[in-house]
Amino acid sequence: MNQSKSLIIALLILGVLLAVALLVWRDPFDRGSRPDYSGLLPYREKDSIDRITVTNREGTFTAEKRNNRWWLIEPRELPADEGQLKAAATTLEILTVTDTASRKRERQAEYGLAQDSPERVSVKVFAAGKEVLAFAAGRPAPDGHGTFMVLAREPETVYVGSHPLPTLLTQGLKHWRNKVI
């Protein structure tokens, strides 16, 4: 009788421990609810971008859309490479923030976002003459589908953008201008 009582008590204790473990257990792959980043970047309509200013290691370049054609206006006025600029403008229109990489300014160098980093690209985007987007981009995100970025209005936080930065924005003048004679 004493042995069966001990067995019942052991089974009850095992049952209680199992129930507690199931209630407390959390899936290690469940990231929980993700923050909503939709309010960080303003909405940009399709084909609304009409001016892009970029500062990279090659210099500062400004492209402007005039009568549905892109023109390079800084450092000097030249016809721009339409395909490259349309692709860059489209990417900038659909760019969103997907995650936070760091909230520490001292770690920005790891992401290619230090002020003196050769990987840093400062971008300002305009629609109807009004600035709609300003950020600095650094290295590509490790997943290959995004870019580390710092928003001008939140210079302390490094975010992950939804798309890689268009290659054109990291290039010099010869890549921006129209090469057709």
Q: How would you describe this structure to a colleague?
A:
With 181 residues, this protein is α+β, with helices and mostly antiparallel strands. 22% of the residues lie in helices and 34% in strands. It has helices at residues 2-24, 82-94, 173-176, and strands at 49-56, 59-66, 69-74, 78-79, 97-102, 121-127, 130-140, 147-151, 154-161. A nine-stranded antiparallel beta sheet has the order 4-3-2-1-6-7-8-9-5, covered by helices on one side. Strand 7 and strand 8 (147-151) form a beta hairpin. The radius of gyration is 26 Å and the shape is elongated. The relative contact order is 0.17. The mean pLDDT is 85.
Spans of at least 5 consecutive residues with low confidence:
none
- Based on CA atoms alone, the radius of gyration comes out at 26 Å
By oligomeric state, this entry counts as: single chain
From the N-terminal CA to the C-terminal CA, the straight-line distance is: 102 Å
**Total helical elements:** 3
- Looking across the biggest beta sheet, what order are the strands in? 4-3-2-1-6-7-8-9-5
Average pLDDT level: 85
Structural class: alpha+beta
In percent terms, what proportion of residues is strand?
Answer: 25-35%
For the report, how would you describe the main beta sheet? 9 strands, antiparallel
Helix content: 10-25%
Order of helices and strands: HEEEEHEEEEEH
What general form does the structure show?
elongated
Count of strand segments: 9
